[in-house]
Amino acid sequence: MEIKDTYNTIESPSEAVLFKDKNSKFWGYAFPIQEENDIKQRLEDLKKDHHSARHWCYAYQLGTDKNIKFRANDDGEPNNSAGAPIYGQIQSFKVTNVLIVVVRYFGGVKLGVGGLINAYRASAQLALEQSKIIERTINSKFLIAFEYKNMNTVMRIIKEKKLDIINQELELSCGITISVRKSNASSIFEIFNALHQISIKEL
C-alpha cells in the first residue's frame, strides 16, 4: 500500500482581502502556521491593526494524518455563523497548517445568520485564493547514536540516501538527528538498524 506522505499548505501570508455586504466590511487573512503559539501572535497583531473592528473570527487546522488539530471561533457572532464557514474553506481547499482570520466592521445593518455565513465563507475563500498553495512532504525524525569511530559509515549512508540532518552532536559518542520522507522511513530505519554498534530510534 502506498503511503501518503505529502500535504498542502500555503507558502506565505496572503494579502488582505475585502468583502462587503450591507455596509459591513469583512477583511480576510490567511497565514501559514506551524504550532498553536503562532495563532495567538497573529490574532494579537490583527487586533492592533483593526482595533476598532467588532469581531475577529477565525479557524485553523494543524497537523497531518491522524494528528490533526482544528478549531473554529465565532468571536461573539451567532453560533456557527463565522468560524464554521471559515473552517469549511480550509477543508474545501484541502490545506493544513493554516490559520484564516476574518475581521468584521459592523455597518449598522444586521445580515442575519445566512448573510453572516455567506460573508465569512466568501472572505475565507478570497483569502485562500490570494494564497499560493504548495505541497510539502510529511517526514519522520530519527536519532542515530554511534561512537566516533563509526562516523564514516553513518555519513556515507546519509550522503548516499540524501538524508536531511536536523541536528548533530559529534563527540566521543555521537548523535545525529535526521529527517526522512515518511514513505522511505521504514527502509532507512532497517539500513541503520542492521548495522553493528549503531542504534537508531524514531523521535
Automatic annotation (TrEMBL):
Domain Impact N-terminal residues, every copy: 22-128
Signal peptide (from-to): none
Superkingdom of this protein's organism: Bacteria
Pfam families the UniProt entry points to: Impact_N (PF01205)
Family in the record: Belongs to the IMPACT family.
Name of this protein: YigZ family protein
